[in-house]
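Final report, closing paragraph on structural work. Over the funding period we assembled a curated collection of sequence-structure pairs, and we close with a single example.
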Amino acid sequence: MTTGAQVPSKAASGSSHRSRLFYFNGGFFTQSRVRRILDLAGYDLSLGKPGAGDKIAVWGKSPTSGRGEAVGDYTGATLVHIEDAFLRSIKPGRDGEPPLGLTIDHKRPYFDSSGPSDLETLLSEEPLDDAAMMTRARANIERIRALHLSKYNDYDPATPMPEPGYVLVIDQTRGDASIEYGGGSVAAFREMLVYARQDHPTARIIIKSHPETVGGHRDGHFGPEHLTDRMTLMTDPVSPHALMEGAIAVYTVSSGMGFEAVLAGHKPIVFGQPFYAGWGLTHDMQPIDRRQRNLTRAQLFAGAMMLYPRWYDPYRDRLCDLEMVLDTLEAMTRAHRQDKNGHVALGMSLWKRKPLQDFFGQTTPLVFAKTESEARATNKPILTWASKTPPDMPRPYAKVEDGFLRSRGLGADLIAPVSLVTDWKGIYYDPTGPSDIEAKISAARQLPEQALMRADRLRRKIVEQGVTKYNLDGQTPQIDAGDKKIILVPGQVEDDASIRLGTDKVATNAALLAAVRRDFPDSFVVYKPHPDIEAGLRPGAVSEPDADLVAHDADPHALLAQADRVATMTSLMGFEALLRGVPVTCYGMPFYAGWGLSDDRMAQPARRRGIEPDLLQLIHAALIDYPRYHDPKTNLPCPPMIVVERLAEGDLPRPSASNRILAKLQGLFAGFAPLWRR
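Its predicted structure, as stored:
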């Protein structure tokens, strides 16, 4: 990424800088993600007896940490204190999910206030005055809040919140080391509740339980027996950021939610000595005399979230910066939150079922139904393939379609997609009614600068790597047009729904070529037949195309690089041209037309008039907000940049022989029965 300093990889660190790290806790052996992060950070995990110059790994102040401490006292080896980073995973670690980062501290755990940790030293001594870093910190704070990200993320941000105006009291798990070693105690929780009631005698008080107490893993400090008539114990999994919005005051002992309160602009009342206390951003009931520096929120965040942890990229298997972790968690939480209650897929063909399960069934398995009544009986949200949806089917349901960065090969060849879209209002290729993509394009005008920078990085990567929808290997013709402007005309499958719904007068490839000849008489026309048609899988061939050059089996990226304009009905190549700065004339109404970014020859829907997003806003809506992406290499939901890299590098599973045979059969019968749609 270009947003921050490069994180050294294992290879970059060099063997001379590596350290032997002995361990006496079985978790370091069984947790492969923890081992891998430590390996990438330059540590060789070892068994045996350490020497005086070696190091010993201990997990915070866990029950097993005493083993390593005892061996360290005996051998003189120094301790390395390891803990989960502050953005961890969807579910707590006790549910078996690996972390996305670690804190590695050579002094003491970050929550141990008995002396300075590496984190405290960093916050005390680092200048934290780099303007670019502070800009990144502020942007990342806002992004974390907008995405409702926390250490654990097994909640729905749309869960109804209490009416604003309450006092928030944060509970924690009994026996947690951050309480004992962070200046807290059981008595501190009782004292905290007393203070909250005295400070706000007429306000409602909400006590928020810890996620692990809700999951039954551990006990908290408060239960129904501690409540009065104006107090509520909130055990439901909710967004901590949404809770902060309605709070008039926040009370905590040492919870990480106190840090989130600071990020939300609160000045929480703190009864312990957590890492975020003592910097002028909290009301401290137990001041820490050695912490004398006042920090801004951005400085605290930069130190604690950007400089201190070691973050991990599960797709590329390397260390990364915080921005990549936010991209990762955005993809993972989106899939988890949308799929947690399950879906039923209606009328899906057999070959589509595994890809659909990979996309939508990892949290709760996808159920498949043959009839609408069968689907409705499940009481689950319904997914239906857009082109196979019965026209009179009542809402609610979501139409599913391939995304705009689909695969390395044709969908008609039954190659699984790496991106899919779900649309609860319509579908992107149907301009006759509203769709989710239209709503996202309209809302994109409010995107922050960081989001637009991300869209531009994605655009640049797509163009640099030559990525298109299907990424077929093709010819690279050199077009000799003399002094004429080159007009690239992409052919389309003529029975495609995007033509049936999104065009009027120009609705065939021959009509499109005639319109281009009429409107651009002095241009050099290059016609590129659709790859499905050239492969014999779909109808729409033109017997004698009225073009100066027919680019058979040509690489779309190579053609776009030479084109002065693209003229299309509704082809996605028009959008791909916009990504590359090539002007586009639309004779139909694709999703990217009607916003002022293309030369539109068909009347645009009134819904799109006057909105006028810029190109980066359109890209963010179409390639980041609208689709979901799946990484077939790790089988994880992923950000779009990962899919671009996989498509560019060809790092994707190959289709099976049975896929190829079935694809040929469907091409043979294309004129009789549309098997490709089943």
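The longest strand covers residues 78-84. The CA atoms of residues 488 and 566 lie 5 Å apart. We thank the funder for supporting this effort.
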